Amino acid sequence: MELVNQSDLDALFDFLLCRTPQAWIEEALKHEEILLQNHCYLEQCAARNALQLMFRCPDKTDVLSKMSKLAREELRHFEKVHALLTKRGYAYKILKPSRYAGLLNAEIRKREPGQLTDSLIVGAYIEARSCERFASLAPHMDEEIAAFFSSLLKSEARHFKDYLTLAAKYAGEPIVARVAFFGEIERSAIESPDGLFRFHSGVPE
After folding, report:
1. What is the dihedral of CA 78, 194, 23, 198, to 10 degrees?
2. Which pLDDT does position 4 carry in this prediction?
3. InterPro entries, from UniProt (predicted)?
């Protein structure tokens, strides 16, 4: 199994402004079915977002290439999570989404090139947080889920870098301030009280 190396994890942890709170991990261990159902849904969302970027950027060859590969990987992940759900006797259903993506997407600028830049930065944060949560959860899960989450780390770590690279290329200006802006929103979503448990939710109330 090809796993992400420590330097890639360190880069990811440096990018995020906080780690997953222990209280969320403890809550996740009580809600395996919800965790896997929501994970399944999020893999679909990740593939959809990549395809949407392809439709938005037909003239950007590198966006088409990276997002096409990303969409295929996310759909393979969806298939694996769905198989795991079925194996464990859970029915797949789409749950009410968490506030997480909505809080980030609400701050995306409406005009280009800012809209594309922000969309890519938000994509980077979502992928990075997903990877961080897999790394945080794996040591606490049973052997099968731990191995599965660990297997996802490498691609998720690469995805966040791909999003950031594209954001920097097409912004037309430095992106440090925008990355920091969304980083604070992301941190607040993760560290503040949240009444709805989901894969990307905040601290359980």
Report:
1. -10
2. 57
3. Ferritin-like, Ferritin-like_SF, tRNA-Hydrxlase_MiaE
- From the CB of residue 96, how many other CB atoms can be counted at a distance below 10 Å? 7
C-beta of residue 200 within 8 angstroms of C-beta of residue 129: yes
CATH number of 6-192: 1.20.1260.10
Rounded Cα distance, 9 and 197, in Å: 25
Hey, what are 99's tokens?
A: 């506030």
What ranges in the chain are assigned the alpha helix state H? 6-15, 22-28, 32-56, 61-87, 100-105, 114-137, 143-170, 176-191
pLDDT tens digits for range 32-52: 999 999 999 999 999 999 999
Q: In a 3-state reduction of DSSP, which class is residue 72?
A: helix
Q: How far, in Å, CA of 26 to CA of 190, rounded?
A: 14
Per-domain boundaries in the chain:
6-192
Q: Mean per-residue pLDDT for 175-199? A: 98
Mean pLDDT of the chain: 94
Find the radius of gyration of the CA atoms of the chain: 16
Beta strands, E only, 48-173? none
Residue 28 has pLDDT above 90, yes or no: yes
